[in-house]
Amino acid sequence: MDAAALLLSGAGAGLLAGGTTCAAVQLGLLTGAVRGAPPGGARPRDAVVPVAAFLAAKLVVHTALGALLGLVGAALQPGPRVRGLLLVLAASLLVLFALDLMGARWARRLLRRDRSAADTGHCAPRPGGMRRPAVLGAATVLVPCGLTLSAEMLAVASRSPVGGAAVMAGFVLGTVPLFGLLGVTLGRALALLRGRLTALAGVALLAVAAWTATSGLRLAGWAPSAGAAGTDRAVRTDSVRTDAAGVQEVTVWALDRGYRPALVTARAGVRTVLVVRTAGTRGHTRAFTIPGRGLDVALPASGETRIDLGAPGPGRMRFVCASGHYPGTITFR
Question: Transmembrane stretches, by residue range (predicted)?
């Protein structure tokens, strides 16, 4: 695939699905970028400038990452547990911004918010006030959503710094419309609601923080297993078969909204192959992760992917999409 095709491929993924999934994961960073706009932030320009700085920094950093991935390969990609920890840290940042919105003075002091132009009587933000949006935009590279990971895998597969840069730049550009709209709307809303309903926005951010932290714990393999006691009624065994060579095959479908079945029981101590099937799947379930093995697999939109699990002993093997949203468990007995 040449650079132009990779750019278009990345842009299509970002535009069609990446914006929503990445916005959910990176909402805390985006909120921090637009938080603290001047009371005149209801003006379009005051809301657009920090969002533009955020997105520009995000584009530069992801393009550079794509070039590095194309040059040296997957060695630069953090494993599931590292990404899970980063998601938990992102959730902590969300909590901090939420407490700031709710009026916690210690959170406000800790964030050391940039002084806006309104504090100095000027009409436009000072250049230094763009530092925080740019830093937070660059930090999005540390909390990738599932489709970002898929784009990174495509950058690795390109085996070219130009191709890797193209696919990551295209992906970020594809997410710009939604991120831009969300950022401007959020910034203007926070400015208009200053001192009125910001506590309500803080509560909403706390809910997103809880969801993000749960996703991180799942991705790292630290969350309670979905196959815990009391859920045996939901366990499926009809997706398990043994071929003529005695190899056990466990079949799971990756759908746009999760994996089916999500709970499976299989025999322990025999060679097992996990078969993950897709049929027109476009969601981030295509970035398939087994946290306990540190394994990430990029699934095709349609097709069959076979993963050799060896001969697992008794216990539970968790799997999840690479953003931690859709979990599943195979219980070996």
Answer: 48-72, 84-107, 134-155, 167-191, 197-217
Task: Write out pLDDT tens, residues 180-201.
Answer: 888 888 777 766 665 555 677 7
DSSP 182-204: HHHHHHHHHHHTTTTTHHHHHHH
What the block records as the tokens of 227 is 């196959």
CA angle 62, 64, 67 (to 5 degrees): 110
CA distance 169 to 70: 13
- From the list 271, 222, 269, the residue with the least C-alpha distance to 245 is 271
The β-bridge partners of 273 are: 249, 308
Assign a CATH topology to domain 232-332.
Immunoglobulin-like (2.60.40)
Nearest CA among 2, 286, 9 for reference residue 168:
9
Question: What residue type is 312 in one-letter code?
Answer: P
Peptide bond into 261 cis (omega under 30): yes
Q: How many CA atoms lie within 13 A of 45 on its CB side?
A: 4
| Distances in whole angstroms, Cα of residue 301 to Cα of each of 169, 232, 277 | 21, 31, 9
| Inter-helix orientation angle 44-72/146-158, to 10° | 40
Is there a contact between 1 and 163 (Cβ–Cβ < 8 Å)?
A: yes
Q: What pTM was computed for the model?
A: 0.67
Strands 272-279 and 248-255: parallel
